Amino acid sequence: MTTPPEVKYTSTSLSLSSLITCFISCFVIVSCLLEGLCVTSKANALSQSATLSLDPLLWDHVVDLNEDFRILWKIINQDITFEIQARTLGYVGFGFSPDGNFAGSDIAIGWVDKGQTYFQDRHIKRNGDPEPIVDPSQDYILMWGYENRTHTVLRFRRKLDTCDPAHDIAITNDTMRLLYMYNERDPPHGSVKPGHLPNPASSFRPYRPIVLTQRPHIQFKHEEYVRILELRNEDVELPGADETLIWCKTFKLDDMKRKHHLIRYEPIYDSPASVHNLQHITLRECHGMHQELEEMAREQGRQCMGARDIPLACNAIVASWSRGSNSFTFPDETGYPMESRQAKYYLMETHYNNLQPDLTQLHANRQMADNSGLKIYFTHVLRRHDAGVLSIGE
Ligand SMILES: *[C@@H]1O[C@H](CO)[C@@H](O)[C@H](O)[C@H]1NC(C)=O
Ligand SMILES: *[C@@H]1O[C@H](CO)[C@@H](O)[C@H](O)[C@H]1NC(C)=O
Q: 166, 181, 210: which is the final residue of a domain?
C-alpha cells in the first residue's frame, strides 16, 4: 500500500484539521467526478492519482508553457483543477497577471521539502516588490504534491471566481495572462515569511496568454459560409538547438465592409520538423492606422524580443496557440469580432524553440527556413456574443 503524500498547509485562516478533512473530501469528490466511481480508500490516493495523471482523458487540456513547465487542467462546473509538472526541485509558482507584469498578480506558490508539500495562495503587491506574499484568504486548495528525481508536481484546485477580488483574479472566458515561475531552491525550513522566497524576481518567466475555459473535444463543422485565412511566416531562419527565436510579422487585413466573427484557429506546420520548433503563437490586433504598422506589414517580418518590441496599438489578443494543443474553437454562440474599420493590422508573434536533440540536427535534410503560422476560420454569419478582449494598459 502506498502512503498518501503528507500535506502541510500554511494557511492562517483555517485550522489544520479542517483543511485535512477538506483535502480528503476534495480528493474523493474529484476522483468520483473524474472516474465515475468512488475511491473510498484514502491510503490509495497517491497511486490512484499517479495512474490517473498518465491517463490523457483525465485532463481536458495540456500545455507546455516552456520546456520545463507543463500545466494540465480540467473544469468541472465552477471549479478548475490544475496540475503543474515542473522540472525543478525548488519552488514553483503559477497564477494570473492583470496586464502581463507581475505587480498585482494572483499566484499560488508551492514546493516539496523532505517529503512535505507546502502550498499557499499568494499575491504580489503593486509597489514593485516582486515577492508573492500570502493572501489572508486561501482560495487555492492543494490536492496533492510530490517530487521525483527531476520534477515537482502539484495538483490543486480553485473556484473560477474565488470572490476574493482584492487578492485573486477571476478566471473568465477571456484570454488569461498566465504567470509562472520556478527556482532551483526551496524557501528555508518551509518558511512563508516575507523575504524567504529565494530570488523571486529572476524566477518569473514571461507570461503566456491562454484561454482556459475552452471546451475540450468541441466538434467543428466546416460550413460553406466559413472562410479561411492563412497567416504564415515567410522563410524564417530556424534557431539552432536550445535557442529561442521570437519572430513578429504584421498582416494587413483586406477590407471587410461588415463585421465578421473569427470562430476557430489552428497551427499551420510548414513541415514535420516545424512541430518540434513551434513553441507558441500569439495573434494580436492593432488599432489605428499608424505609419509604423503600414511599414511593418510590407516587411517580411522581424525578430522581436517580447512586449517592448510590440507596438502599443497591438495590445488586444485575438488568438493564442501553444505547443500541445491542436486547435481552438469558440463555443457555438461566440466569435471574436473582426472588422477592418476597427483593426486593419494583425501582428503575429511566433516563438520558435528548437528542442530536438543534436543528433537529428546533423541530419542532412535539416530544414532551414520556416513558413509556419496560424490558420483562422471566420464568417459573416454572426454569433450572439463577441468573445472578450483583454488589453494591456490604456
Ligand atoms: C518525474 O515526474 C515527471 C512529471 O510527472 C515526469 O515527466 C518525469 O518523467 C518523472 N521523472 C522521473 C525520473 O521519474
Ligand atoms: C463562459 O462561457 C460559457 C460557455 O460558453 C458560458 O456558459 C458562461 O456563461 C460564460 N461565462 C461568462 C462569465 O461569460
A: 210
Residues 147 and 295 in one domain: no
Is residue 254 assigned to a domain? Answer: yes
Q: Which atom of ligand 2 is nearest to the CA of 215?
A: 4
CATH number at residue 173: 2.60.40.1210
**64 C-alpha to ligand 1 centroid (Å):** 14
> Residue 147 sits in which domain range?
61-210
| CA gap 19, 29 in Å, rounded | 15
Nearest C-alpha neighbor of 300 from the set 344, 235, 367, 350? 235
Rg (alpha carbons) of the chain, rounded to whole number: 22
Q: Whose CA is nearest to atom 10 of ligand 2?
A: 173
| Cβ of 172 below 6 Å from ligand 2 | yes
Verify whether ligand 2 is closer than 6 Å to residue 239 (CB atom): no
**Which residue do the cell numbers 507543463 mark?**
70
- 124 in a domain, yes or no? yes
Shared domain for 267 and 312, answered yes or no, is: yes
Q: Are 352 and 245 in contact (CB under 8 A)?
A: yes
Residues 164-194: pLDDT tens digits? 999 999 999 888 899 999 999 999 999 999 9
Pick the last residue of a domain from 182, 210, 238. Answer: 210
pTM of the model: 0.64
* Rounded distance from Cα 173 to ligand 2 centre (Å): 6
